[in-house]
Write a structure and sequence with these properties.
With about 230 residues, this protein is an alpha/beta fold. The chain is built from 8 helices and 7 strands. Strands 3-2-1-4-5-6-7 form a 7-stranded parallel sheet, with helices on both faces. It comes from Microbispora triticiradicis.
């Protein structure tokens, strides 16, 4: 059965890898993007997850194209790294509004039709930073840690309706977001990873594909690290 899937922030990086992986599995995939162009071969919808009206419109377009959304992946996120003494309040709240409150808006809109269908998958993309912390990223870490509590609470709310909610916590992944770091910083991070390398976005995507599949039907409220061991013990 072809399922309707929506991936937020799906035009590049981890989100695009997830969208392509789910499309390859046979799902009908829609992706949201805030800027740029929609990825080739996927149904793209322009959407800013900080605006509830945008989120609602994106779901309406995905539903019109592919039917009620059965799998939603809340992946859209930003970073605005600054040490706390120099961090402006809007630098903190902008990241929270996109990464955490944006996921709330997306999940809230997604679960209404899922409740009627009595099935669905909600997958939230967090980060190892939300579990272990990172200097200069208090805003980002707070937003990603918040997804864990949000996701686990939602899993308890929705479990009796056949809807699973899980969190994926990637580590250091080769994306445009990490490419801006200088080589010395990247090498320092690699040395702290037991597997000694960055992840490929496709490695995150395959875990999401598993969680969206029937094989993961008895997994909910889980936080799955895909970080090469970077966050071990957290």
């Amino acid at each position: 059965m072809v399922r309707s899937v929506l991936v937020t922030g799906g035009n590049r990086g981890i989100g695009l890898a997830i969208a392509r992986e789910l499309a390859a599995a046979g799902d009908a995939v829609a992706v949201t993007y805030r800027s740029g162009e929609p990825p080739e071969g996927l149904f793209g919808v322009r959407c800013d997850v900080t605006r509830a009206a945008d989120v609602d419109a994106a779901f309406e377009k995905a539903e019109a194209e592919h039917g009620p959304v059965e799998v939603v992946v809340a992946n859209a996120g930003i970073t605005k790294d600054t040490l706390l003494p120099m961090m402006k309040e809007e630098t903190f709240t902008d990241v929270i509004d996109t990464n955490l409150t944006g996921a709330y808006r997306v999940a809230k809109r997604a679960v209404r039709p899922m409740l009627r269908m009595r099935r669905g998958r909600v997958i939230l993309i967090s980060s190892v930073v939300g579990l272990s912390g990172s200097a200069g990223q208090t805003n980002y870490a707070a937003s990603k840690a918040g997804l864990v509590g949000f996701g686990r609470s939602l899993a308890r709310e929705l479990g009796s309706r056949g809807i699973t909610v899980n969190v994926v916590a990637p580590g250091f992944v080769e994306t445009d977001m990490t490419a801006v770091l200088d080589e010395a910083t990247q090498e320092q991070i690699r040395k702290s990873i037991p597997l000694g390398r960055q992840a490929h976005a496709e490695e995150i995507a395959r875990v999401v594909r598993f969680l969206a599949s029937d094989d993961a039907s008895y997994i909910t409220g889980a936080v799955i690290p895909v970080d090469g061991g970077l966050g071990m013990g957290h």
